[in-house]
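Sat 14:20. Reprocessing the chain from the morning session after the first attempt stalled halfway. Input below, unchanged.
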Amino acid sequence: MPNVVTMIEDTTDYAFRNAKASLEIEGQTLPTGSEELILQNLRGELSEEEFLQRALEIALGV
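Finished this time. C-alpha cells:
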C-alpha cells in the first residue's frame, strides 16, 4: 500500500498535468521556469511570499 506522501504527490502531479493540459487546449503555455516554480509551491517547498516574488520575476522577465 502506498504511503500518504506518495499519494499526495501523485494527486498533486495529476492535478498539475490536468491544469497544464487545459491551458494548452486553449492555446496557452506556461512561461519558461514557471512549471518547476509551481510544483515547488504545490509541494510546500516555498513560502507564499517567495513564490509570488519569483513568479513576478518570471512574469517581468527579470
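The helical segments are 4-25, 34-42, 48-60.
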